[in-house]
Amino acid sequence: MDERRPHHTILFNKRTMDSVSSSIHQWLEWDQDPITRDEISQLRDAAAVDELTQRLQKRIQFGTAGLRGRMAAGFSCMNCLTVIQASQGLAKYLKTKHANYASGGVVIGHDARYNSAKFAALAANAFLALDIPVWFYSSSSITPTVPFGVTHLHAVAGIMITASHNPAQDNGYKVYFKNGAQINTPMDVEIAQSIEENLAPWPGAWKDLQPSKSLHEDAYQKVLPQYIKAVWDYTESTTIAWKPPKPFVYTPLHGVGGLVFPTLCSSVGISDFTPVAEQVKPNPDFPTVSFPNPEEVGALDLAMQTADREGKSIIIAHDPDADRFAAAEKVTGSWFTFTGNHIGVLLASYLFESLSRTKKTSPVAVLNSAVSTGMLEKMADANDIRFQEALTGFKWMGNIARNLEAEGYYVPFAFEEALGYMFPDVCYDKDGITAAMVFLSAQATWQSQGLTPYTKLQQLFKEYGHFETLNNYFRSPSPDVSMHLFQAIRGGSFRTAKSLGSFKILRWRDMTEGYDSGTEDQKPTLPEDKSSQMLTLWLDRDVRFTIRASGTEPKVKYEAVEAVCDALLAVLTEWVQPFAPTMTYSKQMPTSSGHIFNLP
């Protein structure tokens, strides 16, 4: 009996290895990166069937966020080969479907993460192979300069190699269309199909980037000054007389913002600020933070220590690619970290005051996402400004802003609760650099009125009502587990349930399935998005709760708008724990009042 067991194990491994052998062969035929070739070879030699299956028999999904994932060998990961394949598919798609605009070229930028520069160069090869010009950012760049570059250079598309605020082992491939906004459905599906049709590397795909008349390697040196001018022009347009802001501490969290923002500040006379020395230069290891996202508890600890030492009471922060913006203020001896919704309504109030002075002739519209605060809508209504709700993600808000402009509206601003702020006068994606400059301009104005950002926020709460938000997330072990969770919720008594914990359910909406119990035809007013998962409940006691899958990270996020901790606990007990016990979540989360809420 014991002697036969090894024999059966060997037969089993041989059969399962046979099932992945063709994928191994295909990978080794196409991949010319010695590091990732060696990874697959070692897994093959170790007969690591499960790992090989996971790496090779699923493809990394191309969606409206482009690509994002762990850097490793295999078709399911971010690596040189999958970047080449995505670029070939995108190049072929543009040449075939948008031939009239392809001559405008493609803008390609990259951040300072591991492999970002290499991925950008390999991506450029695909477009050059089809005689599509490439506006190449040879230096590490901030993400907003790519959508800005697309519209400034009249390019057909843009690519940014970044994983934004993801962990160090991740990277990504973000795609913009000629309108400067992120691609949206159905374009993502069409590009994904083109990628599947162009998987084999083309001749020259693996070569080092070669000079040619179609390759503009000095593009960043030309675009960055124009972007900075646009940021400053917009900032100046929002104020009557520019005043220097209160002294502050700045951190880019080891990202590329430190290559741009301090220089921009100095160039416009903002000199009294202190960069966090340990974090101001790009470092792809992100050594001083456990997670390089300013939303995370503890991410700003070093900035707070620096501010305490320097005697400064304001902190300005960017995430590693500088498309998100965060701020904190010392209030009565303790640090108050503003939520994305807090900053959103603060910026909106400042811009509304500015608009009232300029007397725009065009009607004005602003946007935020379905999981962001309802306070913006109330503020917009009070100022005779159109409010537009959007699905989550700037792929929606950027394109909706373009549509509103086509209708004759002026769109100064849009935001999402995850620290994302868009100013279409500069670019049609979230832009942490512009957000920081407008925030500093607003702070200087409030200071002249005897206010700080915190006391201005309290003033707004008194005027429009106190809106609060609690945000947190579960880390999911895989997209399949996340999908199982949402399927289980839908498969239960979700549609017929009258209560959730101690709360009465007044209305619920499923943006994936396109159902809304609160409309006459039971169809959402927002477009359904089958590529994402998002469920929203309206509860009594003025609570709105949303649970959704993150489009860029292995997370399931939940947001309770106008706050109630009990709603979070009810969802944990009734929805998540019965169906997805393997998910992990932070038991500490910051509330919008600056305190830490502990989950049991």
Question: What would you note in describing this structure?
Answer:
The protein has 600 residues and is of the alpha/beta class. It has three domains: 58-217, 3-Layer(aba) Sandwich (Alpha-D-Glucose-1,6-Bisphosphate, Chain A, domain 3); 228-464, Alpha-D-Glucose-1,6-Bisphosphate, Chain A, domain 3 (3-Layer(aba) Sandwich); 469-598, Alpha-D-phosphohexomutase, C-terminal domain (TATA-Binding Protein, 2-Layer Sandwich). The chain contains 18 helices and 25 strands. α4 (80-97) packs parallel to α6 (116-129). The two termini are 49 Å apart.
- Name the average pLDDT: 88
CATH architectural type of the largest domain:
3-Layer(aba) Sandwich
CATH topology of the largest domain: Alpha-D-Glucose-1,6-Bisphosphate, Chain A, domain 3
Number of domains: 3
**Coarse shape:** globular
Strand proportion: 15-25%
Q: Low-confidence stretches at least 5 residues in length (pLDDT < 50)? A: 1-12, 587-600
CATH class of the largest domain: Alpha Beta
Q: What portion of residues is helical?
A: 25-40%
Helical segment tally?
18
Major beta sheet summary: 8 strands, antiparallel
- Counting DSSP E segments of at least 2 residues, the number of strands comes to 25
What's the N-to-C terminus distance?
Answer: 49 Å
Secondary structural class: alpha/beta
